[in-house]
Design brief:
heterodimer, A: alpha/beta, 4-stranded parallel β-sheet, 4-stranded antiparallel β-sheet, 12 helices, 8 strands, about 50% helix, B: mainly beta, about 40% strand
């Protein structure tokens, strides 16, 4: 007898193309609610940025926009082909995953990421810094470079891509050392040193917001960025989402866990194809991405 | 002197200002050809002094465009395949 398919849904973080995000917001059911929460026209705010060269979406705009777009795509995907057994998201995409799986109400997910986005924006303005993608340097070697330079490995995205966070001077030093060892380093268009200790000031506001939200454990399994394993209890969700602000996004290991858990199909619900590309670089042959 | 201007206190000490933006310019007239993205991308890549970024094709040999600066490449300012004049800005680099 043929085994039932195990479908996994992925949601990207802020590394998406603003033009793709704008397109995904078109007629999204939660767009008006999100605009009310951010205090303005969310799609117009994304559109203003999408037209620029090397656009940097403000994080307090990007985060609710990604949740709105991701949940709209999830609704369409479920209507067309049924539900998913596994969920994961990259950074803010984890909130989309939690809402899509039914762990939190969609409106609560929006409230959470609005608080998170504002708190991260304020922390970034206070602390400065940024993020850079690194290619061609093995993870242990990059850990050594970061320790020397005063940065941290913030995202373990795929076997081919790691992302570092830190102050501007530390990122420059990481880049110099990476280049000297034959690797490449690309500055990312983000506002701050996300998933690093620089985001600690954002934790209290997010913790307060999480305490006011009902969290359930749905039938589908949702993989945590921090542990790369499924959540087991509502309290764990709250704690790990706060830790996720300052800790590494273990996306590669999350995808590996999904493959080991029997995922037969991994679907990037977007916007864009960033999550699919990272997953494709990680998944073993045989899984369909 | 007006009362308003008279009321302005002289600044005690000038503020330090550092400008980190740099431009890499065309070494000669010709056609601008950036290196392929497998080798170099203009989207935020870190470059070192002397690193090749592109070349300018001429009727004689192609002339390499190398960075005179260390830093992040923030943008490509010329259109690939289009003619450029000597001294035209080709890349914007945010120096470290």
């Amino acid at each position: 007898m043929e085994e039932a398919p195990v479908r996994a849904a992925l949601f990207p973080g802020q590394g998406v193309d603003p033009a793709a995000l704008l397109a995904a917001l078109d007629r999204a059911p939660l767009l008006d609610a999100a605009s009310d929460l951010v205090g303005g026209d969310l799609a117009a705010a994304v559109a203003r940025c999408a037209g620029r060269a090397r656009p940097v979406l403000p994080t307090d705009i990007a985060q609710p926009a990604l949740v709105v777009a991701g949940l709209a795509a999830h609704g369409r995907a479920v209507a067309e082909a049924g539900g998913f057994e596994l969920y994961a998201g990259h950074s803010v995409g984890e909130y989309t995953a939690l809402a899509a799986a039914g762990a939190v109400a969609p409106e609560d997910a929006l409230r959470l990421v609005c608080v998170r986005g504002r708190a991260m924006r304020d922390a970034a303005r206070a602390r400065g810094g940024g993020m850079a993608a690194v290619k061609g340097i093995p993870a242990p070697e990059l850990e050594e470079i970061c320790a020397e330079a005063g940065a941290v490995v913030a995202n373990d995205n795929s076997p081919a891509q790691l992302v570092v966070s830190g102050p501007d001077d530390a990122l420059a030093e990481v880049a110099r050392l990476v280049r000297a060892r034959g690797g490449r380093c690309l500055l990312l268009p983000v506002e701050g040193a996300f998933h690093s200790p620089a985001m600690a000031p954002a934790a209290p506001a997010l913790r307060d917001a999480l305490d006011r939200v009902t969290v359930r454990m749905p039938a589908a399994r949702i993989v945590s960025n921090v542990t790369a394993r499924p959540y087991r209890a509502p309290g764990e969700v709250r704690g790990l989402l706060v830790r996720q602000l300052t800790e590494r996004v273990r996306f590669r290991e999350s995808v590996e866990w999904m493959a080991a858990a029997g995922a037969t199909e991994v679907v990037d619900l977007g916007p864009g194809r960033v999550a699919a590309k990272l997953a494709a670089a990680t998944m073993e042959a045989g899984a369909r991405v | 002197m007006s009362d308003v201007l008279a009321a302005i206190e002289p600044v005690a000490a000038p503020e330090a200002a550092a400008i980190h933006e740099r431009l890499v310019v065309a070494p000669c007239a010709g056609r601008f050809v950036p290196l392929p993205p497998e080798t170099f991308t203009c989207e935020g890549e870190w470059v070192e002094v002397g690193q090749p970024l592109a070349h300018v094709t001429t009727s004689a040999a192609p002339q390499p465009v190398v960075s005179r600066f260390r830093g992040w490449v923030m943008g490509m300012l010329a259109v690939p395949g289009q003619p450029v004049s000597a001294g035209d800005a080709l890349f914007w680099i945010r120096g470290a």
